[in-house]
Amino acid sequence: MKKFPGVEELTLGKNVEIEENVSIKGKKIVIGEGSIVRSGTKIEVSEYCEIGKRSLIGENNRIRGRDIRIGREFYSNHSSEIGGGGCFDKTSKLTIGYWFHLGSYSIVNTAMEVKIGNEVGMGRFTNIYTHGAYQSVLNGFPVDFGPITIGNNVWMPGATVLPHVTVGNNVVIGVGSLVLKDLPGGCLAAGVPCKIIKENCYPRKLSMNEKLQIIQRINNQWNLKMEHQGNCVFKVDKAYIDFENMQFTGNSSEKSERSRSVLRRNGIRFKVDVVDGEYRKWKNADGM
What we know:
This protein has helices at about 210-220, 255-265; strands at about 5-10, 15-20, 25-30, 35, 40-50, 55, 60-70, 75, 80-85, 95, 100, 105-110, 115, 120, 125-130, 130, 145, 150, 155, 160, 165, 170-175, 180, 190, 195-200, 225-230, 235, 240, 245-250, 270-275, 280. A hairpin with a 2-residue loop joins strand 27 and strand 28 (about 240). The chain folds into 2 domains: about 5-200, UDP N-Acetylglucosamine Acyltransferase, domain 1, CATH 2.160.10.10; about 210-280, no CATH class. Strands 1, 3, 5, 7, 9, 10, 12, 13, 15, 18, 20, 21 and 23 form a 13-stranded parallel β-sheet that branches. Strands 2-4-6-8-11-14-19-22-24-25 form a 10-stranded mixed β-sheet, with no helix packed on it. Strands 26-27-28-29 form a 4-stranded antiparallel β-sheet. By secondary structure, the protein is mainly beta.
């Protein structure tokens, strides 16, 4: 096991892999089981940091702050950052749910508190800034500090979110948007500044026939060889996939895991782990 003398208390779950040239410093840091920390990454947290199980932290990442709590299956691509200016101040706090995606060259600034829900994706070059300041406020220049809240199931590729903004659940934000004001749940929004294009459009309830058409298209496109069993249930090897009730059961195999991976890339995610070759439901609903 690698030694990190700069950490007062380091807790690693089972099968955690930390590559070479990784720096970890701080008071108390917990990395969940099955997680991977790639080369060149630097973690520095003054009080507490918890990263959920089966997370993948990409190469040359920066995770810095005072209090950071990230749910399970966090994925960060290379050269992304959590922290930035003011990240060690008493006002700094970051809470993120499960299945958070942080694209390359993206940043979550935590000078003020940031709350991010479950299943949130920040594509490449996405920015969350809790402060905007450079020139003197005494000379009338704009200076702003404020918290940011992002709801569940939000996709914002290449967007920039500024202080005091709240984004609701089930929101899609267009590429390159500048979010200056709150966005209500269920909307499609885009632009500079970001404006609502369509309200209450997500999620949209699909009929079983529509779902089956989508599943069969994915099945054929990726040659998954999933066999339709009736209703919205499919079989691959010894595993069963119930798309109506979002259940993945049975025994795992290379084919079933490939199907699960391809479905995930299409935004279809199942709350299961592989335990002793079988698919098991998550023990904790919060994903930690």
